[in-house]
Write a structure and sequence with these properties.
Elements lengths: L1 E6 L6 E6 L3 E5 L2 H6 L3 E5 L3 E5 L4 E4 L7 E5 L7 E3 L6 E5 L8 H5 L2 E5 L9
Parallel strand pairs: 3-10
Antiparallel strand pairs: 1-2, 2-5, 4-9, 6-7, 7-8, 8-9
């Protein structure tokens, strides 16, 4: 397990996550398709917000179970609490320092059919 530092684009939101970065997922629900994020799921206790909790904007839709967080300043989406696993958090891997497209190429990527859960476009 490794500790990764993460942040939004402007740096207002900073966090760290303890995880083994070997798997990620891509979802086809309406919001994930539009934000084009690649997500990595971790247990909630392995995410620590270091700075900018007040800079996070909560966005919910449909059943309002999932909690999507965005930076109020730059609009970057660092993580969310998924509807299907509310005790977990999924982190946008491209918000983690040192993670790039080469890292993604080395990971096992799965697809999640979030569209099946959605009643929104």
């Amino acid at each position: 397990m490794q500790t990764y530092q993460g942040r939004c684009h402007c740096g207002a939101v900073r966090f760290e996550v303890d995880t083994v970065l070997d798997k990620a997922g891509m979802c086809n629900c309406s919001i994930c398709i539009r934000r084009n994020a690649v997500m990595h799921r971790v247990e909630l206790e392995n995410l620590r917000i270091l700075q900018g909790e007040d800079a996070l904007q909560l966005y919910q839709f449909n059943t309002k179970t999932a909690k999507h967080y965005f930076c109020k300043t730059c609009g970057i989406y660092p993580f969310h609490r998924p509807r299907v696993a509310p005790d977990m958090v999924t982190v946008n891997i491209f918000c983690l320092e040192g993670v790039d497209r080469n890292t993604l190429a080395e990971m096992e990527i799965s697809e999640f059919d979030g569209q099946a859960f959605s009643t929104v476009g």
